[in-house]
Amino acid sequence: MANSIRQQIMVAVVSSLSNITTANGYQTDVEFVSENIKHFSELGTDKFPALFPIDTDEAKEAFTFRPDTSAQDMKSTLTVLVTSYLFSRTGVTVQARSDLLRDIEKAMMNATAMTTIANIIDIRPMKVTTDQGTVENYSIHDQEFQIDYLYNHADGG
């Protein structure tokens, strides 16, 4: 059985985030990307910056007036949360955090991997939440994105 659209989206997200390197035109070289979130203290300093994308909530609604077995008749809005960890021996992460926030948004909004999924109709950055400097030598933040896609109810999303 083919992967669900939701799973295809997450594979594309991981691929897109893994391509964040200065060689690819970004400000940051991301060292580690995984859907299996770990506590920042479990990672060696060679794994920073580290990104952990996870598919969270999903809202679904009818896209047409009546179900049709031959058309994409449902719209789904998938929320993807990207948790990021930065490390600095000096504790100064302002520039690195700003660069990484921009790089993640750029990767999510312009990724070739995302555009190959024909069912995606929109990707929106929604909000950023930071640790507000509460963890010494680290910067931890979450970026939330909503991804709208269409699918046929008979196949599921």
Outline of this structure?
The chain is α+β, with helices and mostly antiparallel strands and 157 residues long. It has helices spanning 5-18, 94-110, 112-115, and strands at 32-33, 50-62, 74-87, 120-130, 138-151.
Explain this structure to me?
This protein has three helices and five strands; from the N terminus they run H-E-E-E-H-H-E-E. The chain has 157 residues and is an alpha+beta fold. The protein has a single domain, classed as 2-Layer Sandwich (Alpha-Beta Plaits). It has a five-stranded mixed beta sheet with strand order 1-2-3-5-4. A hairpin with a 7-residue loop joins strand 4 (120-130) and strand 5. The longest helix is centred in the middle third of the chain and has 17 residues, at 94-110. The mean pLDDT is 86.
Write the layout of secondary structure elements.
Elements: H1 5-18, E1 32-33, E2 50-62, E3 74-87, H2 94-110, H3 112-115, E4 120-130, E5 138-151
Parallel strand pairs: 1-2
Antiparallel strand pairs: 2-3, 3-5, 4-5
**Global mean pLDDT:** 86
Secondary structure tally, helices: 3
N- and C-termini, Cα separation: 13 Å
Question: How many independent structural domains?
Answer: 1
Q: Summarize the biggest pleated sheet.
A: 5 strands, mixed
Radius of gyration: 17 Å
Q: Return the CATH architecture.
A: 2-Layer Sandwich
Q: In the CATH scheme, what's the topology name?
A: Alpha-Beta Plaits
List low-confidence stretches.
Answer: none
Would you count the extended β strands for me?
5
